[in-house]
Amino acid sequence: MAMDKKPARPAGKPGGKFRKGGPMKKKVCRFCVDKIEIDYKNVSLLRAFVTESGKILSGNVTGTCAKHQRELCNAVKRARMLALLPFAAN
Ligand SMILES: [Zn+2]
Prior knowledge:
By secondary structure, the protein is mainly α. It has a domain at 27-81: CATH 4.10.640.10.
């Protein structure tokens, strides 16, 4: 299959590090950087990754990598079962 290859990036365009209105805060996965183990009993940690209503924040928002986002999701679900965290209100 012949792909429509573009030879080079157009010059003069920034890499996208900066957005209108100021520099973007670089997001990194807290669990990778700080080597934090995700534990469903660590409610104070989990709370930082859910909204007030108990919804799990997406990795795009928190910067959590896919692997840890999965673990986080499981931990939150477990914490909900034990009534440590609220269920998301719909
Ligand atoms: Zn991670």
